[in-house]
Amino acid sequence: MHLIAVSINHRTADVALREKVAFKDDAIRSANVGLYETKSILENVILSTCNRTEVYAVTDQIHTGRYYIQRFLARSFGFDVEEIKEMTEVKVGDDAVKHLLQVTSGLDSVVLGETQILGQIRNAFFIAQEEDTTGTIFNHLFKQAITFAKKAHNETDIADNAVSVSYAAVELSKKVFGKINNKQALIIGAGDMSELSLLNLIGSGVTDITIVNRTLSKAQNLAMKHNVKFEAMTSLPQLLANVDIVISSTSSDEYIVTNRMLQSCASERKNDSLVLIDIAVPRDIEPTIDAIEDVFNYDVDDLKGLVDANLRERQNAAEQIMQSIPNEIVAHNEWVNMLGVVPVIRALREKAMNIQEDTMDSLDRKLPGLSERERKIISKHTKSIINQMLKDPIKQAKELSSDKKSTEKLELFQNIFDIEAENAYEPKKETTNKVSNSQILSFE
């Protein structure tokens, strides 16, 4: 039994390639089932986002498992296997566990510490569970990874500071106004950066947003997509008299917002402060606007300084999280090793309890006059004797799980007690009762 992670991500393939190897939402379920039916695959979870497509699998062999996963991806997207090999990273064993923990906690994302990936991992796992492509190993490991990521986000500042220019633009507005949910915002431009700024404003609770663009149809399309307002660029002077926040990102060679424009509408302004955020290169907003009272003008360099400082904070938090990962890997390995012990302990307890039941049956035949109360007392005490006798052997069996020769020693343990344990790992479908396993390991 081997753990494998095959990843196509922002380090291994550019966006043009990643777009070609992403499973659509309506195909991810059938993809999980299709991979699950492939030779050597015992369990699998498929993650597919805009930045990565990854296959996590439990396989019976490393090399064949890796090949069949890569062949599956190649066939799914119309590539040769060799082409898929060139754009994939393959992690095995502890490295695969480490990779999953890093991905889930946002340490492997394009934007360090982003939290969206946690929800995407959770959804990928739930879909795989619903399609019965997970089992004993992944039902435990993915829950462990999700819990680890939640704890990492709660106990560090990994996701608290803006590390993208569009997000930093909105954060700067908050530094001036505090809460911005009741503010009016204006976005100049209708490209990707403008849309990201729009999404960050909406995410911060801003509802009164207007988009202007030199091509009116583009402003209209973006506005309708996100249910906000749009105006023609000719309305800009009137809009500046009423808004609180302006974020500009166009490809213009000339200033869009000029000193003269703001001076002319200054007397009409109803609000005290105006935040201008220029994320265009070359700049959209005339630099001398800084001289106007209660106008705060920030450009890309200002934003970059904030982003760089915040990135350092995230990197410090990421280092803290990385230091916790080895302990998580150890915990996972100890749990996996314990899987081999559970059936042995169960078999030992079942044999002991069968002996106790046979003894009670013999007592019933030889002492038919026992009252129900007397029988319960004898049964309780005989079970107590068994539990006391089993306590040390069970403790020794648990300690064998971490032994380098655990398999051989567990076989000897079974021979000594004349028991035969079932297979610890049941691939394909998990039928073992987790609660009873816990009870067995606690020998209570």
UniProtKB/TrEMBL annotation:
Active site: 50
Enzyme class at the top of the EC tree: oxidoreductase
Gene3D superfamilies hit by this protein: Glutamyl-tRNA reductase, N-terminal domain, NAD(P)-binding Rossmann-like Domain
Domain Quinate/shikimate 5-dehydrogenase/glutamyl-tRNA reductase: 171-305
Pathway: Porphyrin-containing compound metabolism; protoporphyrin-IX biosynthesis; 5-aminolevulinate from L-glutamyl-tRNA(Glu): step 1/2
Task performed by this protein: Catalyzes the NADPH-dependent reduction of glutamyl-tRNA(Glu) to glutamate 1-semialdehyde (GSA).
This protein's name: Glutamyl-tRNA reductase
Organism: Staphylococcus shinii
Gene this chain is encoded by: hemA
